[in-house]
Amino acid sequence: MRIKDRFKLNFPQTLGEFKAYEDAQKAVDYLAANEFPVENVMIVGTGVKLVERVVGRRTWPRVLRQGAISGIGTGLLVGLMMMLLFGADNPGLMLVMGLVIGVVMGVLMAGLTNSLAKGKRDFDSIRDTVATDFEVLVEHKVAARAHELLAKMPGYHAGMFS
Fold this sequence. Notes:
Elements: H1 3-6, E1 12-18, H2 21-33, E2 41-57, H3 60-86, H4 91-117, E3 123-139, H5 143-151, E4 156-157, E5 160-161
Antiparallel strand pairs: 1-3, 2-3, 4-5
């Protein structure tokens, strides 16, 4: 089965729309607990939005520290490659040299990137794409059974939780 086919239902029908993922999950859990073939169900996030949380001002010390931290992983990789290429006479020295090279390169790249930005983004943030609503879809061949089961579920009202 191809990956894109895993996210496909034949003639899907809406079973319910929910404001929270947990509510959509409860509906599917209820179906599973009642021996419903849940492989015919899909939860789809809708109303997608980008959320960006500003976490602080971007200052030179912060930029350089982040560059040094990002360079550590690269430096360790460079150190390991140096150990493999140049022999293991002194593996600790090769690892330290690679680490130093990685940190220096990370700091230089972070500084250069920050300089080129010219104050256009003087803050640090984290971003996430989130769904605002969730729709539970079900295969048409089992939709009637799913509706019957959910009608008996406490708190479930015509496709939505209260």
